[in-house]
Design goal:
Length: 472
């Protein structure tokens, strides 16, 4: 039956009294239309105009706070201020970013140990909105990354709303008001704040961890952690202990062996030392420095730079096949990596047995570590796999009773990675995130957690955490 409705959708919209109420398809409020008809038919008294706007479209301006102001937070700032223009469009009232450190940069501000570098090719460890034709090398050092980060923040004014020297110490969800209540410590005391949306951009590697070794406090030599490096510390002619063989220790070792009298690396489990991500682009070498001519070409031809970056990205993505259990790539990768490691150790059988893992590549973060294995072929470097029993005034005591006397102990012992904030973070019904995640940090797509409304996370557990920079 035809009620005289227009045959086209635009015609239907034009005659729909819901729209005629205010002239705005999103707003159905307004006086009852007269005559009260639709498509020439009288409308029932109970007629309820329908909004054409998606359900739950926010009508109030949202105030957003982040905890942290590293790469992740700056990505968000770019999206809010530029890509989606949410403040100018009246959707977000303010973006405030609380940063505990006195400056921006997160990882790349804090980690200044010798040899600190990124093992993801620099051209893809880059903000997608700010390609950098001037990267000096295929893999960039920490300081160069930090300077690029600062330059980018300044250029795009991403630091409006950043409050450095402000450490969030408490966050509590107010169910009645639908707001997050914050307590933030700065040099003058504690300030209170509130927001509609809370974003954790605290990084999963921002709380460094001292080893839980008995006696550590009684050590009389120089004690440091890779993430709080004392730049004044000189290791020339000294006996150094490096505890750990994660990515940090692996970068520190080749730097200190050159001038130290002796370096002893204490390890518990071996680590795969693999070819660098994307290194096939540089002929399998460990590093490549761009010439001025290449940088000029990248500057003058942004399309060429984009093509180059895409090429690195595609190649790097393919290498993930190696992390699929029992895949051909994994079986082949395991053998090839073990062979390469043995060769770098000068075919020393004993060292190869101690330093080559028996688990599959990918079960623990693989790292390229140029110069790490080679260091063990030097006379002034030793490897200790014996369990550490304790630290004493003069050095490290191992389970076999040996006291390894050293002038300095470098703890490259990593970070607190359980994703549980060490301060009260309280959601619905008084539940803390630490309690909710005491067994397993469960989340929705690594983005949000049940009982913590309007709370979002960067690099949440089970995401690919080391890559907060989205694909280009
Ligand atoms: C030595 C090192 C080398 C690395 N190398 C690589 C690499 O080669 N490739 C790679 O992909 N990734 C690497 N990573 C991982 C690196 O952390 C990420 O790539 C990225 O920098 C994380 O950025 P983010 O903004 O998420 O976190 P972060 O850079 O950690 O920033 C988080 C910020 O939150 C702040 N914060 C924390 N708690 C609070 C609080 N309560 N209140 C206020 N502020 C707070 C911190 O001070 C920090 O500035 C490396 C990490 C380290 C430590
Ligand atoms: N090149 C890079 O890109 C780069 C460089 C640095 C850091 N990172 C990132 O930062 C993350 C952390 O790296 P990290 O090297 O700082 O930490 P990590 O990978 O957690 O390594 C810590 C090391 O310390 C050892 N350790 C911890 N406590 C110990 C104890 N009580 N006694 C003896 N040994 C102890 C660990 O041994 P066990 O393994 O036996 O626990 C491990 O070898 C990496 O996974 C990576 O994501 C990347």
């Amino acid at each position: 039956m035809n009620f005289g409705a227009p045959s086209t959708s635009s015609g239907m919209l034009a005659e729909d009294p819901t729209i005629q109420l205010s002239g705005d398809p999103d707003q159905a409020n307004g006086p009852t239309p007269s005559p009260f008809t639709r498509y020439n038919q009288p409308l029932p008294k109970e007629w309820i105009p329908l909004y054409r706007r998606p359900m739950r479209t926010p009508t109030r301006k949202l105030r957003i706070c982040t905890i942290g102001a590293g790469i992740s937070a700056m990505n968000l700032a770019y999206k809010i201020h530029h890509e989606h223009d949410l403040i100018a469009r009246g959707i977000v009232s303010e973006l405030v970013m609380y940063e505990a450190n006195e400056d921006l940069g997160g990882t790349w501000l804090v980690n200044t140990y010798p040899g600190v570098a990124c093992d993801v090719p620099a051209h893809i460890y880059t903000f997608p909105f700010e390609p950098n034709p001037d990267w000096s090398a295929f893999y960039a050092g920490g300081d160069e990354i930090w300077r690029y980060f600062k330059r980018t923040v300044e250029k795009w004014e991403l630091d409006r709303g950043v409050r450095c020297g402000h450490k969030v110490e408490r966050a509590e969800w107010d169910e009645e008001r639908g707001k997050w209540m914050l307590e933030v410590r700065n040099k003058d005391g504690v300030v209170k704040d509130e927001c509609d949306i809370l974003v954790s951009a605290i990084g999963f590697l921002s709380q460094w961890r001292w080893p839980d070794i008995p006696g550590i406090d009684g050590y009389e030599g120089h004690l440091c952690h890779s993430a709080v490096w004392d730049k004044a510390f000189k290791w020339d002619g000294k006996r150094i202990a490096v505890i750990g063989n994660g990515s940090s220790a692996i970068q520190i070792m080749p730097q200190v062996v050159e001038k130290a009298e002796h370096v002893t690396n204490f390890i518990r489990r071996p680590t795969y030392i693999t070819p660098g991500l994307g290194s096939s682009m540089i002929g399998g070498e460990v590093q490549y420095h761009y010439s001025e001519e290449e940088k000029r070409k990248f500057r003058e031809d942004p399309e060429e730079l984009k093509r180059y970056r895409k090429q690195i990205q595609a190649g790097s993505n393919r290498s993930f096949d190696m992390f699929t259990k029992d895949s051909k790539a994994q079986v082949a990768g395991k053998k090839a990596t073990a062979d390469q490691m043995r060769a770098k150790l000068g075919d020393n059988e004993e060292l190869a047995n101690k330093l080559t893992p028996d688990y599959e590549v990918g079960c623990r973060r693989a790292t390229p570590g140029p110069g790490y294995l080679e260091a063990f072929t030097r006379d002034n470097v030793s490897l200790v796999t014996e369990r550490i029993e304790g630290i004493e005034a003069k050095g490290i005591r191992t389970g076999d009773g040996t006291l390894h006397e050293v002038d300095a102990i470098v703890c490259a012992t990593g970070f607190q990675v359980d994703h549980r904030p060490p301060w009260p973070f309280i959601g619905r019904d008084g539940l803390t995130l630490a309690e909710a995640w005491k067994d397993e940090p469960t989340s929705y797509l690594s983005l949000c957690a049940a009982h913590f409304p309007n709370f979002f996370m960067f690099s949440g557990r089970t995401s690919l955490p080391s890559l907060p920079l989205p694909p280009h």
